[in-house]
Hints:
By secondary structure, this protein is an alpha/beta fold. It has 2 domains: 3-181, Alpha-D-Glucose-1,6-Bisphosphate, subunit A, domain 3 (Alpha-D-Glucose-1,6-Bisphosphate, Chain A, domain 3); 193-287, 3-Layer(aba) Sandwich (Alpha-D-Glucose-1,6-Bisphosphate, Chain A, domain 3). It has 9 helices and 13 strands. The strands form 3 sheets. A 7-stranded mixed β-sheet has the order 2-6-5-3-4-9-8, with helices on both faces. Strands 11-10-12-13 form a 4-stranded mixed β-sheet. Helix 2 (33-43) crosses helix 3. It is globular, with a radius of gyration of 20 Å. 44% of the residues are buried. The model has no long low-confidence stretch (mean pLDDT 96).
Amino acid sequence: MTIITCPTTPFAGQKPGTSGLRKKVGVFQQPRYLENFVQALFDGLADTAGETLVVGGDGRFHNRQAVQVILHMAATQGFGRVLLGRGGILSTPAASCLIRKHGAYGGIILSASHNPGGPEGDFGIKYNVRNGGPAPEAVTDGIYARTQSLREYRTSDAAPVDLDRPGVQRIEEMEVHVVDPVADYAALMRECFDFPAIRRLFASGFRIRCDAMNAVGGPYAKAILEGELGAPAGSVVNATPLEDFGGLHPDPNPANADDLIAHLSRPGAPDLGAATDGDADRNMIVGRER
């Protein structure tokens, strides 16, 4: 394995907000585009030697490729460990949870939130700081300034990481820990909510329909609602994250979650409906009409 320094030139318009940098997939697929932004981000971080970085995304198109780029570049920055959601998957709330629970330096989250996915859709990257929250303006302004003067980036020529194999792998001197993307977040939810009381509610016949819209919230909803709380099997629908969200637009509102609205409008509807957006940090809750 060798660390490689690659020459580059700036791209215009790489200005992130607190929700990160969002562009069309085709923009991110340009050679050096993602690498430039990630190097600019890393250049603004101080004292990363031996620190932990959290990495994951909402599973949209280009997520897996971008994860590999980030891992191989992080290995040149002195990070001692990366916590990577299995399959490159982490919801935004789960990434925040991992950062705080494991005392990570910060986290890189790959998501364009509720924007459409797929090859013709959108992609995004954002950075969360040590407290688990979005990078403040001073940080994002610094990243943007650096993107305008960047002349090189660093990466490793190590083999790709197996994103689906739990356990520890290595790039250069950095350990990559492929972790269950749901486990720590579920543990946090047990601390925040009265799970036994909610289990009793479902045992009494209470019914829910949760539409994960083929986005990242699906594995969390399945594991927690059906697995831990005892909601009937099938309470969570569209639960498998897909690169194009199965053609759905993961913006949880009555227009885009029309199937959920229709189910809550029928006779004998579930007691409660819910939908989650692309990276599961925004939700819609609806009651039945009858």
